[in-house]
Amino acid sequence: MEENLSNPDKPAAPPDTPSTIKKWLGILSISRLLRWAVYLVGIYWLYANWHEDLPVNQLVERYTFPDSRYLEMDGMTIHYRVTGRGEPMLLLHDANSSLHTWVGWTDSLARHYQVISLDLPGFGLTGPHPQGSYSAFMYAEFFHRFVERLNLRPFHLAGNGLGAQIAWFYATEHPERLRKLILLDAPGFEEKSSTAIQWLASTPVLNQVIRKITPRAFIRLMLEDVYSDDQKVTDALVQRHLDLLLRPGNRKAFTDRAQVSENRPPATLIEQISVPTLILWGAEDTRISPEYAYEFHRNIRKALLKIYQNTGHWPQEENAAESAADVEAFLEGRF
């Protein structure tokens, strides 16, 4: 019986070495497989999202209109569109957009007006600025020279986002050229902030990478951010934005714009606007809060204001029919 009792002084049995080795080899094997899986997924993601520039002639065939025109100016070939007859009305698009944003307005307003839209430097078929200059002051000066080349006076002017900033700045410097002004979701009073994409675009090495790697999913996320209704972000819309971003020089223009330290005129100038002004805004704008619509309304004498429900940062796209009808009423003095 005593022989069956365990001896406390007796050392424990050594571990089963073969089993331990087998266990650790299993763990290491799983770890190795996971690492390889991550590497392979990463390589596939880079391959799937690596895009070379698209030839300009191919984009021209795909994205021009029968009434598209071109103008050689400042070392660029400016793509613009002239539709209809009547009093001229110029339309300026937002950043990361093109003159295509105004298709709905053009179809409606061209029945009574000569509607002129253009691809600003760094966007659409116009492509990059030769000197890589993208400050708001460059855009304002560029637009002034464009108007001079077309010999327009006076005219109506509308802008969305970046285009609205150019428009209100132009209105403070050249009020004698304008009949009426329309501002859609305009920058000016909001605090300037940087997005993660802008940080990447302004970071050395990383900004070189994003000039080649352009995930389609990121384009969709950007559009879903500016739209209120994600269902309106169609595959065709995403494809057009991706294709025009792949125009040679446009991705570099994106990173160059992100490095502009001060890209807007002072908001104190807004109270100098003297032309009749209509302010339009999307209630669900996540880029520039609708609260700033009231700032414009307070600072522009006799300005009119309308805010659209279920609409994001681009009312001219997401709510094209109603916003175009309101603009026509405003131009005719019926708003």
- Superfamily at the CATH H level of the largest domain? Alpha/Beta hydrolase fold, catalytic domain
- Share of helix, binned: 40-55%
| Quantity of strands, as a count | 8
CATH domain fold name of the largest domain: Rossmann fold
Report on the biggest sheet: 8 strands, mixed
Count of folded domains: 2
Query: Whole-number radius of gyration?
Result: 28 Å
CATH hierarchy: architecture of the largest domain:
3-Layer(aba) Sandwich
Order of helices and strands: HHEEEHEHEHEHHHHHEHEHH
Counting helices, strands and paired strands, the structural category is alpha/beta
Report the mean per-residue pLDDT as an integer. 89
Strand portion: 5-15%
How many DSSP H or I helices? Answer: 13
Question: What keywords describe this structure?
Answer:
alpha/beta, 335 residues, Rossmann fold, 8-stranded mixed β-sheet, elongated, 2 domains
Can you put this structure into words, describing what you see?
- This protein has two domains: 17-49; 56-331, Rossmann fold, CATH 3.40.50.
- Helix content is 42%, strand content 15%.
- The protein is built from 13 helices and eight strands.
- It has helices spanning 17-49, 56-63, 103-109, 136-150, 162-173, 196-201, 206-209, 216-226, 235-245, 250-258, 291-299, 315-318, 320-331; strands at residues 68-73, 76-83, 87-92, 113-118, 155-160, 178-184, 277-282, 304-308.
- Strands 1-2-4-3-5-6-7-8 form an eight-stranded mixed β-sheet, sandwiched between helices.
- Helix 4 (136-150) packs across helix 5 and helix 8 (216-226) packs across helix 9 (235-245).
- It is elongated.
- 36% of the residues are buried.
